[in-house]
Amino acid sequence: MRRNSYTLLYYIGVLVVLMLTACNDKTVYHDYEQTSASGWEKNDPLSFTIPPIQETGNYTEEVGMRINGSFPFLSLSLIVEQTKLNTGEKQCDTLVCELINKRGYPQGKGVSQYQYLFPLKTLQLNKGDSLRIEIRHDMKREILPGITDVGLKVSKTSRANKVAARIKAQKDKQ
Hints:
By secondary structure, this protein is of the alpha+beta class.
């Protein structure tokens, strides 16, 4: 009888931990778009539409990527164009993604397919703001093999992240 009660308490404890960590997620958007099997064409931007934001605040954007062994370069340059749909305000950023180190080893997580997540920027968004984001590569090759998926993650920035960013900015100034 005592053994069954310990087992029950164990499962309840695991359930409570899972529930607490699930409630802590501040992700408001996370999606991937697949590229063509023959390769990602330079003139084929991948589009993401973020629905209206529910809460005013700072939001962190990250670009996700999945590659396989046929990617021919060490890094990848991306052009990220963002439009706030309610105001028409546009921004354009270039993101350089270091995918493979100088020894030829992928820096992402995985075995035959490697996954990456690169920080893009932090935005101040108001309640009701909606975004359309287009991502395209800016490489010399017109068709880029080896990139299977490109994604976008938007998360509400927590107070701890703001403090850490402020501390890092102060250290960078020194």
